[in-house]
Amino acid sequence: MWRLLIGELYPDAEFPEPAKEALFWRIEENLGLPVPPELVELLRETNGVHNEYGDAVVWPAERIVEDNLAIRAEPDHHELYAPFDDLMFFGDSDMGPQFAYVHTGYGPGIVKWDHETDERRLAVVSLRDYLARCLGQDNDWFR
Q1: Range of the domain at 137
Q2: Strands (DSSP E) along 59-125, which ranges?
Q3: How far apart are CA 38 and CA 49, in angstroms?
Q4: pLDDT digits over 22-48, tens only?
Q5: How many domains in the chain?
């Protein structure tokens, strides 16, 4: 399903091998957050997604763990930013913003985070909408 959608939005997309199942548990165990089912489904089909500019729209599962742990461990981040405990970063633009699932009492949504201002704005409510904006005609929004 995800490969088909991505291929429709970005016909030149390349698809890496699927993520290993054990990585989903590693993400949850290390971050203390559930991996949203739609992200698990995508990573089971392709371990990451890049757009036409080479931006990692969806990181490989290994990077999801590594980058989230790194951002939580950076001592300066505790002084500069609000806590990251309810965020699971999973994609970025080389031009600046990063994207994360935010876990709320109402379910996950996807926020766009600006590391310069610590602004966290709800961007979309589903991975499908996120990919449509990042890979489709509205990809300037992503940058």
Answers
A1: 2-142
A2: 87-92, 98-104, 107-114, 119-124
A3: 14
A4: 999 999 999 999 999 999 999 999 999
A5: 1
